[in-house]
Design a protein that fits this description.
CATH class: Mainly Beta
CATH architecture: Distorted Sandwich
CATH topology: Beta-galactosidase, Chain A, domain 5
Largest sheet: 11 strands, antiparallel
Helix content: under 10%
Order of helices and strands: EEEEEEEEEHEEEEEEEEHEEEEHEHEEHE
Radius of gyration: 20 Å
Low-confidence stretches: 9-19
Shape: globular
Mean pLDDT: 94
Number of helices: 5
Distance between the termini: 56 Å
Length: 400
């Protein structure tokens, strides 16, 4: 068993804070042959981190890193691209009940080329999973020598560097995940996932770097997924929408009720809607929210539309055991075939050494007052705008 490596340094955790004494514990650094099996870290302010390895079945060898302030907890999966498995607020679990019940699934059990390129679904059970980095939509054409399956490969790549940065009122987990291939891509994702005590909020800051000597394509989508108790019949989605476009004919049939959810419905066919959202004129920040039927609990997702200009709402109100879930998905592009996205100028081209920053944050809303506060926040962004609803797929959102 390898031990963690600790160091102290004086450095700010972000540009908004004055320099503060910071302690760093390195849990994994393959360049120095550091790989801890377990660890426990406690900040003076009461935020803790706990690393453990899972055993048995398809989760064998998966590492989980839990961040907790005693009231709010989030589980990070370094083995699966630094995704977020589930969160917990008191007795309330935030996430969804995937048909994949033996997860989190080790990437070695996920054959992404299987099922006609849909093998990614074999391991899909996270609250937040990233799609990308060179492609985030449907599988590539099989004629492509570098064909990539559904939603890309980053979610099935383990972190080769993992550290916990400790400040009095917060812990930040830093992970490095590479998407590299000889003759192909050479991208690195540096993620910093932060929990601040007593905020019920988790922030995910990702920087994607082109480590190669050639330009590289970037597509990045954050697949935030939620089920009960936030998702239920009569639950609603709220956003400052300017335009809403169905992805396909199936979604077009539901355009008039795109923002309202059904009870679990056996045989329901998934629907996806592409959005153009309003944002703050100075900061470019926007907020979207999922709230339950009674409006007394919800989830708020915030992001910068300069970093993530495209948003997709995924509705899959199928039978509960078949995966009753909705996805709130900010992204650099819409999850269309890559050729379509490139034709519409939505595939980022990173020069050698180029970087792209993306920050998202999730806030849990446990009371009606919290939900009302965020509803007012969205209403201020919306102003007098009434969204344009397209009743069929139209360009530039989707192929007509």
């Amino acid at each position: 068993m390898m031990k963690a490596y600790s160091t102290d340094e004086n450095a700010p955790m972000d540009h908004q804070r004055a320099p503060t004494h910071m302690s760093t514990t390195i849990l994994t650094d393959l360049s120095r042959n550091i790989a801890a099996d377990h660890a426990s870290i406690q900040s003076p302010g009461g935020v803790s981190a706990s690393l453990k390895s899972l055993h048995g079945g398809r989760r064998n060898g998966v590492q989980l890193l839990d961040l907790s302030d005693g009231h709010f907890c989030v589980s990070i999966i370094p083995t699966r691209g630094m995704g977020l498995w589930k969160a917990r607020m008191g007795d309330t679990v935030i996430g969804w009940a995937s048909p994949v019940q033996d997860g989190p699934v080790h990437p070695s059990f996920v054959n992404q080329a299987a099922l006609g390129g849909l093998g990614w679904l074999d391991g899909f059970d996270e609250m937040m999973v990233r799609c990308g980095l060179t492609q985030n939509g449907p599988p590539s054409p099989v004629t492509d020598p570098f064909a990539i399956g559904l939603h890309g490969v980053i979610a099935n790549r383990p972190a080769h560097y993992l550290a916990v940065h400790e400040l009095p009122d917060r812990l930040t987990v830093e992970g490095h995940v590479d998407e590299t291939c000889l003759f192909g891509m050479n991208l690195r994702m540096i993620t910093k996932i932060t929990l601040v005590k007593d905020t019920r909020r988790i922030e995910v800051e990702d920087e994607i770097i082109n480590m190669g000597n050639r330009e590289a394509d970037l597509e990045l989508l954050y697949h935030w997924n939620f089920g009960r108790p936030f998702l239920e019949g009569g639950a609603t989605f709220d956003a400052a929408a300017e335009e809403v476009c169905p992805r396909d004919k199936t979604a077009a049939a539901g355009i008039r009720s795109y923002d309202v959810y059904d009870e679990p419905t056996v045989g329901y066919a998934e629907q996806a809607f592409f959005f153009r959202l309003k944002s703050d004129s100075e900061t470019s920040n926007t907020t979207v929210m999922l709230r339950n039927k009674n409006g007394d609990k919800g989830l708020a997702l915030r992001f910068d539309t300069r970093q993530l200009p495209c948003f997709t709402l995924w509705k899959n109100t199928a039978g509960y055991d078949d995966g009753y879930v909705t996805g709130l998905e900010p992204a650099t592009n819409y999850p269309n075939p890559k050729a379509f996205e490139k034709a519409h100028g939505r595939v980022i081209s990173l020069p050698p050494g180029g970087r792209h920053l993306a920050v998202t944050s999730l806030e849990a809303l446990p009371t009606a007052g919290d939900v009302e506060r965020v509803a007012h926040e969205i209403a201020r962004l919306r102003g007098d705008t009434k969204p344009t609803l397209h009743h069929a797929p139209v360009e530039p959102f989707a192929a007509g």
